[in-house]
Design goal:
The complex is a heterodimer. Chain A has five helices and five strands, in the order E-H-E-H-E-H-E-H-E-H. Chain A is of the alpha/beta class. Chain A has a single domain, classed as Rossmann fold, CATH 3.40.50.2300. Chain A has a five-stranded parallel β-sheet, sandwiched between helices. In chain A, helix 2 packs parallel to helix 3 and helix 3 runs parallel beside helix 4. The longest helix of chain A has 17 residues. The model of chain A has no long low-confidence stretch (mean pLDDT 84). Chain B folds into four domains: 170 residues, PAS domain (Beta-Lactamase); 112 residues; 162 residues, Histidine kinase-like ATPase, C-terminal domain (Heat Shock Protein 90, 2-Layer Sandwich); 142 residues, Rossmann fold (3-Layer(aba) Sandwich). Chain B has 18 helices and 17 strands. In chain B, helix 4 packs parallel to helix 5 and helix 7 runs parallel beside helix 8. The C terminus of chain B is likely disordered. The chains are: A alpha/beta, B alpha/beta. At the A-B interface, helix 1, helix 3, helix 4, strand 5 and helix 5 of A face helix 5, helix 6, helix 15 and helix 18 of B.
């Protein structure tokens, strides 16, 4: 059962996404902000991270940059969730080292497919 | 003072006097000369006669050689005061008897011997030689010498009289001429006085008085005519001048009024811009705030739908699908409103790049395939051979076509949709023409009128049946306008529609100072314009007006100024140019100033560059937490900005203004493509199961 770390500051989104992911057979751990996400990534060692980009204090890009700079967490795929429907945000996320991204509101089936792809790629690595 | 510079009065007197004196002197002199000549002849005759008398009287004494008698005879000459000497010579030439006026003094000039008879003038003296004869016998020669005392006395007296006479007549001439000269000089002096008065007082109403009808009279006439001419012109000139002054005053008033109006307009413009900015910020925030709960609504309804499907409660499934679909419609609406508000606020900027038209069409078709299949439509794409690359904002071109094609799909059932692309030249410009035709429900002539207006979907029933926000075509229209293109429609209800879009093959940017957003754009062009001895400030602000204002102001402070409309471009340029200072806006359409600030501060090369936040967002604490040096709220207090900049300038040594670091390589193509699909899919809510891979 793949373990997914969901970094998201909005409680409702967190709840909804986690429940839907669990329904699809994922185990989900949650962090409320960047700092917590950073520490949980190294302690929980998830198979994949869903990262909200607009987080308070430390934004998702920065968290991802730090994750990718750390040997231990470097190989965990990160899918960015960008709230803004803007191309530049996605470019920012990719530049920060995210493996993929999706825009909020989430098209769940699309997101699931992205998650699957990332997990498959990780395994083949 | 020379003679010529004397006053006319004096000249006239002098001329009169000189003339009369010269005439008088000439006549007196001629008279004098004549008189003196006649008098001298008289004297000569007289002396000759005396010589004859004395010769006759002394002839006997000579004959008898009686010297005493001869001397006595000669002595008789004493009564004649002018006779200086008298001498009797014997025939052998020896002196026989003599007489001298003054006995004791012997005249040195006395000739030693007798000479030829006759008279001659020797200097001041008249000498007469006379033969003494008796009965035809030559007895000797008499010599008489006269000093012509009478003559010179007479000459002196005459000269004195002449002089006195000349003086008296000169005086009289002076008196007379000084009286009479007024006849001539009077009018001239009067004319001169008048003239002086006129020029001193500038009073052209004065006239000179004409005394006589002579030349001076006509001179005065001329002068008066001239004066009245001048007076006439002066009056006209003064009138014109008055009018001019009035006009000038009027103009000044008008100018000040206009200035005031202009200031008011500027103020109003500023207020309007602020309002517009506030509106955009509000809309951006609102859309974000609206999206978050929508996210939850759509998400939870989808989740519940899945659960309902699993538990087999079909009625719930349908209701939940309605909630989900309404939520998605609302989301599309919010996205479109945001786009439109950005266009209206002028925040929609063009990011030009050169791209392959065929590639772009292919991408769109792939993305839209599910929508095409949905209503069992057939799509035909035809690209003319000459269509190759074009330079435009690919995202906007894509969205234009996407909107047109998804409309075609939506309103056509079991029909044909075709895309034709070709290139043409009109008015010296190359145009790429996109034509999207369908065999759908079509649009009536009446409906076509409002087709490109916001919220003007052809019919409200259509919205119910087909969905959509009614903003798609309005946005499409605006995007086409933004790229200086044009859009048109031909349609028959029931027959189908054809939308034609013309976009320049080479779209150009009008805005000055904004840089193309592409990563491969060469900033060295910009750098080439900068002065090497100046430090560079980078201004990151999405508002063109603010960029322009800041640019001008900072250039005045002696900096090179680079301005960019978005944060990512700002970051790239900052790395390339290494500015001494960066000013950063927070609310920008494409990015968030806070994240740019974080990135700047996280970059080892740029972390030391001071960043001044220039924004309408009042959140100083956040700015300082993220590493901003200063925080200014718009509208910017320029003086404060100048002081801050000066502080930074002093606290740091001068640095290299530009480094030739190569621009960062652009993200790989595949990555761009992924982003493209995501963008497009967001627009098209029915496109399912899209994947994007790196």
């Amino acid at each position: 059962m793949p373990k997914i770390l969901l970094v998201e500051d909005n409680e409702m989104n967190r709840d909804m996404l986690s429940r839907r992911l669990e329904r699809r057979g994922h185990s989900v751990v949650m962090a409320q902000d960047g700092e917590q996400g950073l520490s949980m990534a190294s302690t929980e060692m998830p198979d994949l991270i869903l990262m909200d980009i607009s987080l308070p204090f430390m934004d998702g890009c920065e968290v991802t940059r730090r994750l990718k700079a750390d040997k231990r967490t470097r190989d965990i795929p990160v899918i960015a969730l960008t709230a803004h429907a803007l191309v530049t945000d996605r470019v920012k996320a990719i530049n920060a080292g995210c493996d993929d991204y999706d825009t909020k509101p989430v098209e769940f089936s699309r997101l699931i497919e992205k998650i699957q792809n990332c997990l498959v790629e990780k395994k083949t690595l | 003072m020379s003679l010529q510079d004397l006053s006319i009065r004096r000249k006239l007197i002098l001329i009169t006097m000189l003339t009369s004196s010269v005439a008088l002197l000439l006549s007196s002199a001629s008279f004098l000369i004549y008189d003196l000549i006649s008098f001298r002849q008289l004297l000569t005759q007289d002396l000759t006669t005396q010589a004859e008398i004395i010769g006759y009287n002394s002839a006997a004494a000579m004959a008898f050689k009686d010297e005493p008698a001869a001397t006595a005879t000669l002595s008789a000459l004493k009564v004649k005061g002018d006779i200086v000497a008298a001498v009797l010579y014997s025939p052998d030439g020896k002196m026989f008897a003599r007489y001298f006026r003054n006995d004791e003094t012997l005249p040195t000039f006395l000739p030693a011997r007798s000479q030829e008879k006759g008279y001659r003038f020797e200097g001041r003296y008249l000498e007469v030689w006379h033969d003494v004869t008796l009965n035809g016998e030559h007895l000797g020669t008499l010599f008489l010498q006269s000093d012509m005392r009478q003559w010179s006395t007479r000459a002196k007296r005459y000269a004195t009289i002449c002089l006195v006479f000349v003086l008296i007549s000169g005086f009289l001439a002076y008196l007379v001429s000084s009286k009479l000269q007024k006849v001539i000089s009077g009018p001239i002096v009067h004319l001169e006085d008048t003239m002086r008065m006129v020029s001193a007082n500038k009073n052209y109403e004065v006239r000179a008085v004409k005394s006589y009808a002579d030349e001076i009279g006509s001179l005065i006439d001329g002068f008066n005519t001239m004066l009245s001419d001048i007076q006439h012109r002066d009056t006209a000139l003064r009138g014109a001048n008055d009018e001019l002054q009035t006009r000038t005053r009027e103009l000044e008033e008008e100018i000040s009024q206009r200035k005031q109006a202009q200031e008011e307009l500027l103020k109003a413009k500023y207020v309007a811009e602020e309002a517009s900015r506030a509106k955009s910020t509000f809309l951006a925030n609102m859309s974000h705030e609206l999206r978050t709960p929508l996210n939850a609504i759509i998400g939870y309804s989808e989740m519940l739908e899945e659960e309902a499907q699993d538990s087999g409660t079909d009625t719930n499934v349908q209701d939940l699908q309605k909630i989900k679909s309404a939520g998605k419609h609302l989301l599309a609406l919010i996205n479109d409103v945001l786009d439109l508000s950005k266009i209206e606020a002028g925040k929609m900027s063009l990011h030009l790049e050169t791209f392959d038209v065929a590639g772009m069409i292919e991408e769109i078709v792939t993305t839209l395939q599910p929508a095409i299949n949905k209503n069992s439509n057939a799509l035909r794409v035809h690209l003319a051979d000459q269509v190759g690359m074009m330079r435009a904002d690919i995202t906007k071109v894509r969205q234009i076509l996407f909107n047109l094609l998804s409309n075609a799909c939506k309103f056509t059932d079991h029909g044909n949709i075709s895309v034709d692309v070709d290139q043409s030249t009109e008015e010296g410009l190359d145009w790429v023409r996109f034509r999207v035709t369908d065999t759908g429900i079509g649009i009536s002539t009446k409906q076509q009128k409002n087709l490109f207006q916001e919220f003007a979907q052809a019919d409200t029933s259509i919205a119910r049946k087909y969905g959509g926000t009614g903003l798609g075509l309005a946005i499409t229209h605006r995007f086409v306008q933004l790229m200086k293109g044009r859009i048109g429609v031909e349609s028959q209800p029931g027959e189908g529609s054809a939308f034609t879009v013309h976009i320049p093959a080479q779209v150009t940017l009008e805005a000055v100072g904004s840089l193309p957003a592409e990563g491969n754009s060469d900033a060295s062009d910009v750098i080439a314009d900068m002065q090497a001895d100046r430090d560079t400030i980078l201004v990151i602000d999405d508002d063109a007006a603010v960029r322009e204002l800041m640019s001008r102001f900072l250039m005045k402070l002696g900096f090179n100024v680079l301005t960019v409309p978005n944060g990512e471009e700002g970051l790239r340029l900052a790395k390339q140019v290494r500015p001494v200072l960066i000013t950063l806006d927070v609310v920008m359409p494409d990015c968030d100033g806070w994240s740019i600030l974080s990135k700047l501060k996280a970059d080892s090369e740029l972390s030391k560059v001071p960043v001044i936040m220039v924004t309408i967002v009042d959140n100083e604490a956040k700015g300082f937490d993220l590493g901003a040096s200063n925080y200014l709220i718009k509208p910017v207090d320029r003086e404060r900005l100048a002081v801050l900049i000066e502080k930074h300038r002093i606290s740091r040594p001068r640095a290299i203004t530009a480094s030739n670091t190569a621009p960062k390589s652009r993200p790989p193509r595949a990555q761009k493509r992924g982003e493209v699909e995501a963008e497009a899919s967001e627009r098209f809510s029915h496109a399912e199961n899209l994947t994007s891979r790196r």
